[in-house]
Structures are given as C-alpha cells and as structure tokens.
Amino acid sequence: MTIFRKALCTFAFATLAIGTIAAAPQKAAATEQDTLVVGTMWEALPLAMQPRRSRFFNESEILDTLVKLDYDLNTVPGLATSWERISPTVWHFNLRENVVFHDGTKLDAGAVKFSLERVIALLPYAADLLNIKQMSATAPLVLEIETNEPFAALPNQLTDAITGIYAKASFNDAGEFVKPVGTGPWKFEEYRKQDRTIVTRFDGYWGEKPALSKVEYRFIPDHNSRTLALEAGEVDFIDNMLPSDVARLSRDENFKVYSKPIAGLYYGAFNAGDKSPLSDVRIRQAVNALVDRDLIVKGALDGIGEPAWEFFGPQFDWAPKADAPFKLDTDLATSLLNDAGYQQNEGKWEKDGKPLTLRILSYSSRTEMPAITEALAALLNQNGIATDVQMYTWEGMLDLVKRGEYDISVVFWTPEMTGHPDLHLKSQFHSKAGLNYQFWNNAGFDEAVDTGRTLSPGAEKDEAYRKAMNILHDDAPIIPLVHKVSVGASAKDVEGYRIHPSGFFYDFKSVSKD
C-alpha cells in the first residue's frame, strides 16, 4: 500500500490517498453459480456478540428484528406485524404467525422476551437504546413492553441490529452467547478465523426464500486487495471501495458499480475537556468556520461523498436540522480566534508565544478515513493551525480518547441508522451517555433530547429536536466533515442488489446470479 500526497484544486495543501498501481489480474475460475462470495472490510466474527460485530447478524439476515426499515428508512413489519402504543409507557407488539427459528423451535412472545432480556443483559449499550422497564407475554403472539418513561422512539430502536431476535439455542446454560440462531433467510454454517464466514439458505424462512443457496463472506481488510479479488473472479461482490477504484471499474463492462448516499457521517469529535484548547467554544467554532468540506470531498475522495455542513444527511427529511448549517467563513474564524486571545505570527496562530496545535487521532481500517483525516489536518495547517496527526487501530485510538489525550478524534457513525434522531444524539452527546468521551455536557441539550424521545411525530417533537440541533451547532462539540456515499461493485452476472440507506443491511436474499 502506497501513501502519497497531492494538491487539491488550486490550494496548497496535501491530502492522503491510498492506492497501488497494478496490472489487472488474470481472470480466475468463476465462483459457484448458487453461491455469492462477498469480500468485506470487517471480519464477520459470527461467534462474537459485541455491538459492532453483532451488526453482521442483521447485515447478513441471520437474525430478524421485530421492526424493519424499508429503502426510505420508514418502519415496516419484521417479526412484528403491527405495534400500538396503548399508554405513554406501554406498547403492544403483535408477532408474525408460523415463524420458526433455524433449530426448529417456534417464535412466540416468550421467545422474543427471552431474547431481548439476554441482549440487554449482555450488551449494556442496548439497555439505554431500548429504555425498557419490563416485558410480558400477554398472549402467545403479543409482547407487551413497558418503558421507563414515555418513549416514542421504541419501534425505531427495535430496527437496530443489536435487537435481533435470538433463539434460546444461541446461548449456553450459563446464559453466555454461543452462536447466532435466528429466524432469518440465512442460517449460520461455518466460521474460519481471519478468513471467512459462511451462511446457507434457510428453507423454513417465513418470507420469500433466497434465490441463492449460500453466501460466503471473505475477510479482506486491505482495500486494494478486495478490488483485485473481484477482478480476479475470486469474489462476486465487494464493498467499501477506494475512490480511485470506483472510476476504473465503472468503465469496465465486466463489473457493476453501486453508489448511493446512506446513513453515515465522518466527523471530528472535539475534546471539550480541560486538557485541550478546544475546551474554548470559540476555537471549536473557528475550526468549523475554517474547514472547506467541499474541498475534502473533491480533493481527498474524488467526489465520492457529500460535504457535511450539518450533522444529519440532507436526504433524510425526517432528520432534525439546526436553523443554520455551518459555513466556510474565514473572517468569522479570525474574529473568534482573536477574541480567544490568539494572534497570527507569520501566518500561524499563537497565544503567549505558543502555537495553537491540535492533536488529531483517527484509525485506518475504514476506507476513506486516512484521506479525510489528512485533508482536515492540511486545511487547518493552511489556515495557520498546526496539527499532529496520529493513526491507530480503532481500539488504540479509543483508549487515548477515553483518557482525554487528544484534541480531535475523526470517527464514523451512522446517526440516521434507525430512522430516528434519538439513537445518536442520546448515545453519543448526552452528558450521561456511555459513549460520550468528549467531556462535553450541556444541560439544555440533555433536556431537549430527553424530551424529544418521549414525543410522537408532530410539531412538539420537531421543536424539541430543533432546539437540540441548534445547541449542537452553537456549542460545536463536533465538526461534521463528510456524509457517507456507499460504493460497492459486483461481477456483471450479479442481479438484484440495492444499497440500503441504513448502511447495515445487504438484502442478499433478493440477489441472484445470471
């Protein structure tokens, strides 16, 4: 893998691009006709239940959720055919008839209750996500859920992959997770560590049966190698492509390239604690005013992405927006930095003779992450703010972030993933959120988010979230950078694939090979 720097447009700053120049490989023998071989960036880890990895159970549809999201991110029936809020804190979910798990046991309200209780016990993140006080099976196919407070977001939260419904056979006698046994169109078949995970068609599936008999997920973490594997005929489909490969494969009639904006945001999380100069809101606002997101997308990503001047993607009309998005304004940035006590000396911002330097951390496993991080740093350098960029594994970066040893951590999240703003605003930015490592808290924001999650759609809910977004904009604990555009490619004989806007759903049951 080669790292090189290039100029962006007419601006004198550098950005990171990753790529290798290689001759197209010779076409290898085709994969089996009834099997889809998928090259993935992440290892599936089907025997692990941690929050990120358990998303594979939903991506691959080993597990079903009670509620699903359609291709417009509207809630639609899953294992629950309908749901009703019968009081401010009580919901009834009517379950689908004649559904069986992969081990042949029947799905009923008791089985769903058991599964959700296991998920909450084993994954603490799920407890806050679902806000459940208690559950009961009021009839064989009716599950009653009582929440701790009025919680209108519950159906949307039950679309999250973490809430997939497991059979009791998924756990041992001690209640520990063993393997995924679900009700989905695919059942877990085999796992080879650091190599592949195989799922096979479940002929007892309650919905339309898959056309293919098997899907094989091959772990290919190197971004170049995934594309080369597709070109060699070793895999049928790849995701998370390098921007340079998108243009090349788009010109090749042997492949299909897929591209669509999805729920996903690359952003810089600011350390608002005492260890960082970004504890000063004026500097946080100045950084937002100095960084040209359009240049990041054009120069660092070859146009594959949407400039992020606000938190939620513009394609989601249900998502709350601040009254005014961020904008490029160097005069405003100058005024803010001067007000914070900084002066420019030979183009560099200094205070008391010390340069303003920001330590930027990120991780390299995501395809676009190094390029976005380096472009952010280059733009800040160009505007007189020194940077120290350090790339880690996700775990390595997170360890430093938790200790407050950073100024900006460039991360990727999917804030629109459940079709409701509560998922991200509550779990990431609320002062009591377990994932809030930014040392930022704002009582007004907490109150607005706590109120918004209780309200059904309407003017009152919209106003609560508008208030939350205005605080997030004005207090600026983040810098939105790029809204994700998902890109993937397949061999030309693959039919029926569509990119789902949630970012966590392949829908390979609808795919065939011609």
From TrEMBL:
InterPro entries: Peptide/Ni-bd, SBP_5, SBP_5_dom
Family per similarity comment: Belongs to the bacterial solute-binding protein 5 family.
PANTHER family for this protein: PERIPLASMIC BINDING COMPONENT OF ABC TRANSPORTER, PERIPLASMIC OLIGOPEPTIDE-BINDING PROTEIN-RELATED
Short name of one Pfam family: SBP_bac_5
Primary localization: periplasm
Highest taxon of the lineage: Bacteria
Residue ranges of every copy of the Solute-binding protein family domain listed in the record: 75-431
UniProt keyword Signal, yes or no: yes
Signal peptide as annotated in the record: 1-22
Annotated localization: Periplasm
This protein's UniProt keywords: Signal, Transport
Protein name according to UniProt: Peptide ABC transporter substrate-binding protein
